[in-house]
Amino acid sequence: MIDPQDRFWSEGQNYCGPRENPTPKTYYNVWDWDQLRMVKVKGTAKLFPPEEDRELSILARFANYLSPEVRAITVDDDGLLTGLPTDLEEDYTLYFLHMFLSRSVARWPMAVQMAWDELNIFNSLPPHPNIIPFDRVVVEDQESRVIGFTTKYIPGGTLANPKILFRFEWLQQVTQVVDFLNLELGVMHQDIAPCNLLIDPYTQKIVLFDFDRATSRKKRLYEGRDDVTSVVFTLYELITNDTCIPHWDRHIGMVQSISEWIVNRELDSDVSKFRNFLSQWVATRRSDGDMERYLNAPHRFTWPDLPTAPDYNVPFEMGTT
C-alpha cells in the first residue's frame, strides 16, 4: 500500500464564486496513485481555504472504502461525508488508449524494443540490497497484453532532494552496485542519476531503479551514458548542485579536472574524501580491459528476441470507450 502522503496528487482548486467568500462551493480533482483514477472532492471554501491542500487528507480518510462506481465525495464544513456521486460526468479520469501492437511496433520500434529489454533485464536481476526488487508483470484482462510491471514501493524519496545529507557510504554503495551490474552481470544501466537513486528509510541504503535504458553487450550503448561516467557526474551534481551539463556533452575530465568543487549540499565527510575515493574507483574501472570484463561478465544472462506483433485490428472509434 502506498503511503497516504505519497498516494494522492491534486490538480488544484476550482471555485464557484469569489475566493474570499467562505460559502461558495469548491472542488478538487485528486489523482489516486493506488487506484489509478481521479476522484473529485467537493465542499465549500470554508473547509478548503486556498493553498492548504486539505483535500488530500480528507480523501485519504475515505479512499480505501470507496466503491469503483463512486466518482466523487461531497463533504460538509466539518469534513463529514454528505454524498457519494456516481455520475459519470463527475469522473475526470483520463482514458489510456493501448494502441494496436502491430501499429505501435511500426511507429515506435525503438521504444517497444527498449520496453521489451527493460522488462526482461529487470525481471532477470538477482536480489541485491541496492537494486529495487521486481514485483510482477501487469496484463490487461481482455487480451492479456502486457501494459507494465510493478516494483516494491519505497517511500524515502531520491537523492535529487538537495536537503538530504549525502553520506560517504552511499557513494560506496553506488559504485558497488555499478560494478555488480557491469562486471558480474554484463548490464549497463545508462541512467545513473540522483533522481534514480532512492533512499530506503528502513535500511538507510541507496536503491537503484529505472532500467528503461539498460542494455547488455554493445547494442544501444549511448555516448556519455556509460555507468562510470554517470557515477562521476552524479557525485558532482550531488555535491555542487550543478545540473547544467547534458549527458551528450559529458566527459569525465570535465569535472574531474576542476580543482575545487563548490559544496552546496550537506555531507557527512569532507569533500576530499568523496573525491579521492571516486578518483581511485575511476582509475580502476578505466584500466585496460574494462570493456572486455563487461562483455565477458561471468553471470551474463540472455532473453528471447522481441516477438513479432500479431497483425489484426480491433474496431475502435475515437471518442468512445
Automatic annotation (TrEMBL):
GO MF terms held by the record: ATP binding; protein serine/threonine kinase activity
Residue intervals passing through the bilayer: none
Keywords: Chromosome, Telomere
InterPro entries with a match to the protein in the record: Kinase-like_dom_sf, Prot_kinase_dom, Tyr_kinase_AS
Enzyme Commission number, as recorded: 2.7.11.1
Gene Ontology terms: cellular component: chromosome, telomeric region
Subunit organization: Component of the EKC/KEOPS complex composed of at least BUD32, CGI121, GON7, KAE1 and PCC1; the whole complex dimerizes.
Protein name: EKC/KEOPS complex subunit BUD32
Species name: Penicillium egyptiacum
